[in-house]
Write a structure and sequence with these properties.
157 residues, mainly alpha, 6 helices, globular
Length: 157
């Protein structure tokens, strides 16, 4: 019996299905490091913007304050991130510890390996084209600075 996916003609649906499969594999590959995709993203951001505070991290990840605090609490308790005095008495500057930097290096290796697995069916030119197209779609979906979202219809039912 053949499985029928009702929305296979919709690119967004197909992209989401591929994402679900890729994220499941990524989660499995990161588990031995004690990391999740969310923790990986947080470590990468803190590495890039060393000294950022929790509010900046939360905005960058698109998560609320409570979730950000829980994430940073976990990373701190795991010895991957340290809180240092911030710009004011209420904030903390976040920095990777030596263990956090080692975890970041290991996670980057896993991410590259997973990219190789996920996109093995594509040659170099196809990978570049897919990257270009995904960036174009992401830009189209990014809300303007004023927060207004407009939709246009290209096809009628």
């Amino acid at each position: 019996m053949r499985t029928v996916h009702l929305f296979e003609d919709l690119l967004g649906y197909r992209l989401r299905r591929a994402d679900v499969l890729a994220m499941a594999r990524l989660s499995q590959a990161l588990a031995p490091l004690g990391l999740t995709p969310a923790r990986v993203t947080a470590l990468a951001y803190i590495h890039r913007d060393e000294g950022c505070d929790q509010a900046a991290l939360g905005r960058a990840l698109g998560i609320n304050r409570a979730s950000t605090m829980g994430l940073v609490d976990h990373l701190s308790a795991s010895g991957l991130v340290e809180r240092q005095p911030g710009a004011d008495r209420r904030s903390h500057a976040l920095r990777l510890t030596a263990a956090g930097e080692a975890a970041r290096v290991a996670m980057m290796r896993v991410l590259r390996e997973m990219d190789d697995v996920a996109f093995a069916a594509l040659d170099t030119a196809e990978r570049a084209e897919l990257g270009r197209l995904l960036n174009k779609v992401r830009r189209a979906l990014t809300p303007p600075a004023d927060g207004a979202i407009t939709f246009t219809t290209t096809q009628t039912e």
